[in-house]
What does this fold into?
Amino acid sequence: MNSDIDTGNLGTTGNPLRVAIVGSGPSGFYAAEALFKSPLTVRIDMLERLPVPFGLVRYGVAPDHPKLKQPTLVFDKIAQSPGFTFLGNVTVGRDVSLEQLRTTHHAVLFACGAESDRRLDLPNEDLDGSHTATEFVGWYNGHPDYRDRSFDLNQETAIIIGQGNVAIDVARILAKPIDELRSTDMAVHALDALAASRVRDIHIIGRRSPAQASFTFKELRELGDLGGCVTMVSGNDLRLNSASLTELEDKNNFNAAKNVEILQSWTTHCASAAEKRIWFHFLRSPVAIAGRCRLEQITLERNSLAGPPFGQLAQGTGTTRELRCGLLFRSIGYRGLPLPEVPFDPTRGVFPNTAGRIDGTPGLYAAGWIKRGPSGIIGTNRADAVATVQSLLSDLPHLDSRPKSGTEGLYEALAHCNSQVLSYADWRRIDAEEQRRGVVIGKPREKITRVSDMLALAASPPRCSRDRSADEL
Ligand SMILES: Cc1cc2nc3c(=O)[nH]c(=O)nc-3n(C[C@H](O)[C@H](O)[C@H](O)COP(=O)(O)OP(=O)(O)OC[C@H]3O[C@@H](n4cnc5c(N)ncnc54)[C@H](O)[C@@H]3O)c2cc1C
Ligand SMILES: NC(=O)c1ccc[n+]([C@@H]2O[C@H](COP(=O)([O-])OP(=O)(O)OC[C@H]3O[C@@H](n4cnc5c(N)ncnc54)[C@H](OP(=O)(O)O)[C@@H]3O)[C@@H](O)[C@H]2O)c1
It folds into this structure.
């Protein structure tokens, strides 16, 4: 610590602790909550690259799981805290630099999630017809980045690689009767496309055994209850080696035991019993993706497992089988993206950190998926963000304690880049408008899916709802 720096009044009304939080998903909001709970006077500027808040809660959580979006009610309360400012449509690293944030704030806390994907590293991975789950999820949830993607739903067979909850979401959305999706907040472009879908057979492929599948049993069980769809699994695929049996005996591994139990109950299902089928395959890895102009088939290699209980890895056996398909979703996990001037671990796709302190860069912190990698549910990010904030608060004596310009300085810097910055009040207007559009067609909301439309709505003077014509819907 520099002994010339007076740390005495940092965090008081005369010199509030000013923190810039990058990202407005769960980890950003939970970090803000933890900072406001401290006895210090705190001012928070939350910068979000999209015009609207909530990250994957708005753009990841499945539309047919509205209860799981309820944390936004908590986030909304946090946003009402005195000293909180939301700056939407501001990309850190493009509209404002880290260097700038360091001059206007005492600390910068990155909560910018994992916006990219792991890759299979196979030739033809990007062939027409082969997509990431990220694209599909973003598309049906109305994410502006993915709004204009298209998926050839004329195909009868879709394959999903990976056995996590995102894979389950993708399978469920493909299989669910369209009338059950119409009353959700799924974007209307996706509803229209899914209504015409000819997908009938959905294969979910895992490289390890059922005992290592990472989906949670409630999400798995739900697939067995879909109308007009039957879940299929071969008893052969459920044979477990002794290390897997040992794993299932561990009482902390309850979820895996439940998964296996549910899958076992499906081995007697008959494929012709329903219009659509979801097939589970275990111990298989994709080794080739082929097609002339577009995807036509993938090759799966049979695996065996090697290693001790809880450390078993898939190893190819050399036995392969082709599966014809026109639609492939790679759902093998998300991946963080680097930002200029911030240390980045390219292997793990995270900002390397110790207890949330970004390595080698005092005053920089990380929370959520960019801190620990792309795992965990919304609630997991709360304890994670609290731990990072604890690190930040205990570093207080080491931070530059001179008063900082915070929101004011940030607005000054942003004035130079000519981008329209949206406030939380602007988000409220967008939110109200989306809900109004939804009510008319029997949905909780109809999302505005283009950034330009969100910006126009935020810029337009408020109007009485009766003035609007049906054409605006
Ligand atoms: C498809 C999917 C479905 C899920 N469903 C559920 C579920 O049903 N229930 C559940 O509990 N969990 C679910 N999860 C997990 C949950 O969404 C995550 O645990 C959580 O969102 C991670 O929070 P985060 O704040 O770290 O990241 P995010 O939620 O991704 O938030 C990061 C935010 O940072 C912003 N950002 C990125 N870069 C910048 C930048 N340079 N400048 C400014 N802003 C930036 C992004 O736009 C985003 O808003 C799901 C995850 C996925 C992928
Ligand atoms: N409803 C919900 O609560 C909900 C919904 C969606 C997401 N989430 C959460 O969000 C997080 C992310 O979910 P996710 O499904 O993206 O990730 P995940 O749970 O980590 O699942 C990733 C899957 O991809 C497999 N995989 C990884 N690399 C592979 C490769 N090279 N080849 C073949 N398979 C590969 C993994 O298998 P291995 O195990 O062999 O590595 C695993 O089956 C999870 O914590 C999840 O629970 C929750």
User: Anything to note?
Assistant: Confidence is low (pLDDT under 50) at residues 1-6, 464-473. The two ends are 58 Å apart (CA to CA). The longest strand covers residues 313-324. The pocket of NAP (ligand 2) is lined by residues 118, 120, 161-167, 169, 206-208, 212, 214, 219, 285, 331-334, 374-377 (CB under 6 Å).
